[in-house]
Amino acid sequence: MILRQPKSRRKLDKVLSKTESRLPGKIEALAAFFSGIMLAGAFSPWDFWPLALVSLAPLLGLSSLLPPKKAMAAGLLFGLGRGLAQMYWLNVVITQYGGLPWAVSILLFGLLALYLALYPAAFAYFVSRTGKRGIPLLLSAPLAWAALEWIRSLLLTGFPWLPLANSLAFCPQLLQSAEWWGAPGLSAGLVMINALVMKGFFAFKDKGRICFSGLAWLLAGVIIVAGAWGLGQKRMDQIQSLAQKSPHIPVSVVQGDISIFDIQNPEKKVSVVQKHLALSGKEAEKIKKRPWLIVWSESAGPFYMLSEARPTLKVLEGARELGAYITLGTMGSVAVNGTYAPTNRSFLADPLGRPHGWYDKVHLVPFGEYVPWDNLLFFVRAIAALGRDFAPGEKGATLKAGPAVLGPLICYESIFSELALSQRRKGADLIINQTNDAWFGRTGASRQHLSHLVLRSVENRMSCARSANSGISGFIEPDGTVHQLTGLFTEAVQTRELPLLKINTFFTGHGDVFSKAAFGISLLLLLVTLRPGFRNKQEV
């Protein structure tokens, strides 16, 4: 007598069998997950950039060997490994300053990590599918990665935090080509190096002993990196020479180290200004050259400038007494639909103690400064106790401070390349980044945040002065070198004469054409592989 399994059990076995067929094996899964963690080590705060040359190779190998759905699962695990290792600081923001319990924090952190992991999952699927249709890996992988980074910068209001190119932020010799193709081109170049490493490894694995084809792939990667380094150093020398001949302006960045609770305390408004003036006054004795620019952080003016008389007058009188331009982060308001809406504002006072213009933040933080899709997410405002939405400012707006044309970027606006690009096109020659990174605590997030500015400086060949309330503050020159960085959670003032370079790069003139081209070609490749009868060929 043959006993048949219950129908429900047979259905369950069928589902499990189908699920297993779509998942990589244990070794493949672990390789994908830990290579994602390894890639995180190439970024701040660790900054071991050579890992960016090899950490993608395991995922590329898995994507070439596994069928598309299994490759996609491997890409998801890779993305989760990278996201968990890089974005851990979100738990500090959510629990310590957001006041939410750890359970909620872990849930939100996990959801963000999962969302970010969708991009390497799509990448792995694409590489697997196109590779098995005979599309060369050295073509498909770099273009697909750049295209997906571009999509991430646009989708759901955009979150281009730490593109692959940022792993080179503190290796200026390898950054210089960003003036041509921006961060996306650098990311694509790194993916190509990883593909060469993977091909070299597979050649050795398949043939064993001395494998000349494997050596050739690896040697090609070494030659590209060495050539990029040599050309990059030569270009740095050229930019430094141009910078020496350019006009300069002395700039001081003031790090007040004001606690978030004092910033939010209405009774502390004047004392916050006085502290910044005192720190600026100590530096004034060393500054003989005028005009002089002083940069205070995003939170240095926790009030409505020009509407609240007492702290406003303190700032204007301080600028006059110091004989300097002072730019500080404050609050503003603009008319919207017959009423007033708040703005996140960078205000500029001149050496005569007069208002000299302002810039209102363009790219607002979703769920912090406004609620996106308000009609759909109407409940969020009540749950998060959010007030009225902030109003965005004008894209590309600049400020004039003596010989310098300032391009202010408030907080995480520095991660969006098009904002600095639009300001450069309107004459900006000095990036001013004002932020309050105290929300990140003593994590590596502040250094991660800073790393984006290095790319913005090289893309447009602009100097940059960064003032962060709790650190990291400092300077970046047009060649991508970083100078006089401050520590976290300490009072500090740093001064440097910054060059005002007046050259336009290819990136400035044409924008991010590489990402758009990469997207278009990647889409075309995908459509070609979907064509019936297209060849099925393993490509490793």
Give a short overview.
One of its GO terms (biological process) is lipoprotein biosynthetic process. This protein has about 550 residues and is α/β, with parallel strands linked by helices.
Report on the structure:
The protein contains 17 helices and twelve strands. Helix 2 (26-40) packs antiparallel against helix 3 (57-65), helix 2 runs parallel beside helix 4 (68-86) and helix 7 (137-152) packs across helix 8 (178-207). The longest helix is centred in the middle third of the chain and has 34 residues, at 212-245. It has helices at residues 7-22, 26-40, 57-65, 68-86, 90-97, 102-131, 137-152, 178-207, 212-245, 260-263, 269-284, 309-322, 378-383, 417-425, 445-460, 506-510, 513-529; strands spanning 248-255, 293-295, 325-336, 339-349, 355-360, 399-401, 404-410, 430-435, 463-468, 474-476, 482-483, 492-499. The model has no long low-confidence stretch (mean pLDDT 91). It has two domains: 22-241 and 514-530, no CATH class; 247-501, Carbon-nitrogen hydrolase (Nitrilase/N-carbamoyl-D-aminoacid amidohydrolase), CATH 3.60.110.10. The strands form two sheets. Strands 5-4-3-2-1-12 form a six-stranded mixed beta sheet. A six-stranded mixed beta sheet has the order 6-7-8-9-10-11, with helices on one face. By secondary structure, the chain is an alpha/beta fold.
